[in-house]
Known about the structure:
The protein has helices spanning 2-8, 31-39, 74-93, 115-128, 148-157, 171-177, 183-195, 214-226, 258-274, 291-294, 338-346, 360-375, 380-386, 395-400, 402-406, 427-432, and strands at 12-13, 46-53, 55-56, 68-69, 99-107, 130-141, 161-167, 200-207, 231-236, 278-280, 284-286, 302-304, 307-309, 315-319, 324-327, 330-334, 352-357, 377-379, 411-413, 416-418, 446-447. The protein is globular. The model has no long low-confidence stretch (mean pLDDT 92). It is built from 16 helices and 21 strands. It is α/β, with parallel strands linked by helices. It has one domain (2-319): Alpha-Beta Barrel (TIM Barrel), CATH 3.20.20.70.
Amino acid sequence: METDLSSKYDVRVPRYTSYPTAPHFNDGVNAEQYRRWLRALPKDTALSLYFHIPFCDEMCWFCGCYTKIVKRYQPVADYLDVLLAEIDLVAAVLPARFQASHLHWGGGSPTMLKGNDWQRTMDALRHHFEVSGEAEVAVELDPRTATEDYVRGLGKAGVNRASIGVQDFDRTVQEAIHRIQPFDVTERVVGWLRRHGIDDINMDLMYGLPHQTVERVTAMVDLAVRLKPARVALFGYAHVPWMKSHQKMIDETALPDGPERWRQFTAAAERLVEMGYVKIGLDHFALPGDEMAKALTGSRLRRNFQGYTVDVAPVLLGFGASAIGRLPWGYIQNVAPLNAYRLAVGDGDLPTARGVAFSDDDRLRGDIIERLMCDLRADIGAICREHGAKAEDFTAEMEKLAPLAADGIVTVEAGRIAIPEEGRAFVRLVAAVFDAYLDDGQRRHSKAV
C-alpha cells in the first residue's frame, strides 16, 4: 500500500525547516529592520549562532547549498576576515553580551578553513558572547579534504560535535554524483575526531540518488553504523535542476521513481532501527542515549534550518553570505553574492538582503507545523489557545485532511492530529495543509517522499 501512496502523492512540498518558508522572504525586511530587532532583544535571551562558509574545492552534483568552488585558500581567508567583521557589527548593535548555547558551522564546507582559523574564530566569539561551557559547538566536515592537523585544531578550539557528509559509499553512485569518498577515508576521519575529543558524530546519508537500489542503500547503512555515529540523517535527494544548474549533470534516467524512493527509504530506515537507532521526526535517527532521542519526550524536539535539533534558544543569529537567522519578530537572510556581502560589511552595514516579519497567523501555523514535523502529532485546540486563536478557524484545513486520513496517513479526532508510523514519510504532506503560502505549482520544493 505504501508504494501505491508514494505514486499517488508524488508531489513537491517544503521541508519545513522554517515557516514561512524561504521562497516567501521579501526585501521589506532590511538591515535597519534587523538592527531594530537586535536592539529590542531582552538581555537575558539565549542565542544560537550559525556561520556559513560558502566554499568547496569541487562541486558535488547533488548539492542544493549556496557554495562557490575555489582551489586556493586565500579567498577563504579573506572571507573569514569579512565574517569576523560582520560578527563585530552585530555585537555592536546588541544591547548586552549575550549567552550563546549552540554554535554551528555549515557550508559549502567549513573544512576549507585551516586548523588555526578555528581558534581565531572562537577567540572572537568568546570576546563578544558568553559561550557556555555546556554549549554545543558543531561543525560540518568533508572527509575528503580534512587532515588530522585540521581535526586537532577543531578539538583545541572546543568543537564537540562533527557532522560528516557521506551520501553513499557505493562507487557507482559516487561517480554519478561527482563525489568520490571511499569508506576508508570516512573511517580514518572518524578515528581522528575521536582521538582529539570529538565524540559526538552525525552522519548524512541520502536515498533517491542515481543508480541507488534497495540493496545499495541497505549496504550504505551497514557501513555507516560500523562507525557508530550518534545521529544519522537520511535525506531524500531533491532534484531541482531549474534551481541548481549543476544538477543537470546528473543522468535523470538513473534516478529512481517515487515507489523506488519509498522502498529505499523504508529499507534504510528499518535497518537503522534494527541497529538500535530511534526514529526522529521525518528522516533523522539517533542512538537512545543521545540528547535528540531524549528530546522526543515533552515536545522538546525543534526544527530549524539545520534540520532537527535540541536547541531551544529563541534566537538564531546567522553570519556569512546567504546565512539565515531567526528572531522573535521574524526571519532575516544575508545577501548571497560574495561581492555584495563583502561590500556591505566593508561599508560598516549589516548585510541583510531579505526576510519576513511574522504575523500572528504565521506564529500559530508555524507552531502547528513544527509540532507535526517533530512529534508527528498536534493538538490544534491547545495550540490555538496558546495563541489566543480559535480552533474553528482551521475547519477548512481539518476538512482537507480527510483524503489523507482515508489513506491511513493521518488520524484526526476531536481536533487532535496524529500521524501513525505508516504515515511518517508523508508528514510534510500533512504539514502542508496548514501552509497558507503554499502555491499550487510547488516546483520550488522537493518531493514529498
